[in-house]
Amino acid sequence: MHYLKRILSSSFFIISLSGQSFEWSPEISIQLKQISDLNFSKKGDRIAMVVRGALIEGEKSEYLTQIWVSNNDGEDLTQFTYNNKSSSHPR
To answer: In what order do the strands lie in the sheet with 46-57?
Structure first.
């Protein structure tokens, strides 16, 4: 549950940054990763999630989603999939 609080806190932090005077740009938005599809283990001690991030290689640029897993306290965050295509629905 602490991990979920960290995710929500990060979201509020990013929102609060918008109140500061800096210029939002495509380069900045590409650096942000999006977290979705949280799935808690039956015991509640592990969380699987989908992380969406930009992949830019030469002329090719796209968003890929990969599955990440961590303890419910946010420790031991590990990327679970490393596919060339998007992975989703951690069940």
So the answer is: 34-40, 46-57, 60-71, 78-79
* Cross-strand partners of 79: 68
pTM of this prediction exceeds 0.90: no
Residue with tokens 């977290």: 35
Domain ranges of the chain: 2-79
The answer to whether the beta carbons of residues 67 and 87 sit under 8 Å apart is yes
Beta pairing class for 46-57 and 60-71: antiparallel
pLDDT in tens, 21-60: 667 788 788 888 999 999 999 999 999 999 999 988 888 8
- In the DSSP assignment, the letter for residue 14 is H
Residue with the two structure tokens 């420790």: 75
Q: Are 52 and 64 in contact (CB under 8 A)?
A: yes
Q: Give the span between the Cα atoms of 12 and 42, in whole angstroms.
A: 28
